[in-house]
Amino acid sequence: MIIFHDPRCVEYSAPGHPERPERIARTVPLLKDRHPTWEWREPRPASEKELLLAHTREHLEHVANTKQDFDLDTPAIRNIHQYALKSAGAAIEAARAALGGECAFSLMRPPGHHATRERAMGFCYFNNVAIAALNALESGIKVAIWDFDAHHGNGTEAIVANNPQIKFASIHQFPAYPGTGRKSFANIDNYPIAPYTPRNEHVDIAKRALDKLLGFEPDLLLVSAGFDAYSGDPLVQMTLEAEDFAEFGQWLSQINIPIAIVLEGGYSDELPELIDAFLSAWAKR
User: C-alpha angle with apex 264: 260 to 266, nearest 5 degrees?
Assistant: First the structure.
């Protein structure tokens, strides 16, 4: 297992914001203690060329230069551009490591799956998983994206929609932020789940979504791994437990194609344990 992580990603914060440094700061020592043989690598920042596959030049300049908050959830924190570049670079490096035969996980912040081609939103500045996917396509492969974050991956959907080399699936609570993801179309499969849906039904839907993605016969599977579908998460009303995320990891351990995983949401105090349950099951492949 290779963990792409930059310790400096915990250096920024906004008062009272749920996407807080502790999400990562508490996860790192737990993983290092329980898995001393896992390899840790510091990612490089994504290049402008890599970012432009998913975003407009105007958006890149806006993230780099704005002094005003992008929205109520997405503040214009000092140096956020540099942190976002590293987070996008980690996703790209994780995908490349996967294609080289490794299990790779990006343990970074900020997350990315709400960022659209032209807009930062929902705690996200650059769309890490979409950037990684579009860069991977340059080698002539097909990519599937499995997004089990509790919120719809609206930015990823908007960026990859109608691309025949990509298949995207999002399993998410509806209604919930950002209010999208009700319908499927073209290469986009959306699985809206009502609040308080029984966990066995949620797990069955996630498995069906993954199986359908695999029917696309991708050469690379990217996972937007959000752990906010946990029953104790403060932002939504979903019902999954640690055992369910472990089951997700077990499914991935049985898939014989390259897989890279990118951290998205998850805002409960139990996040480190949820990540460990998921990665530990996956690492048994």
Answer: 130
Q: Compute φ and ψ for 254, nearest 5 degrees.
A: -100, 5
Edge-to-edge, what's the strand order for the sheet holding 188-193?
A: 39-41, 2-4, 104-106, 259-263, 220-225, 143-147, 166-173, 188-193
pLDDT in tens, 34-78: 999 999 999 999 999 999 999 999 999 999 999 999 999 999 999
215's CB contacts (< 8 A; 6+ apart) are none
Cβ–Cβ < 8 Å for 238, 191: no
Residue that is written with structure tokens 């999954």 in the block: 240
Peptide bond preceding 218: is omega within 30 degrees of 0, i.e. cis?
A: no
pLDDT tier at 284, thresholds 50, 70, 90: confident
Residue 114 annotated as catalytic: yes
Selecting among 5, 55, 113, 114, the annotated active-site residue is: 114
Q: Is the pTM of this model over 0.85?
A: yes
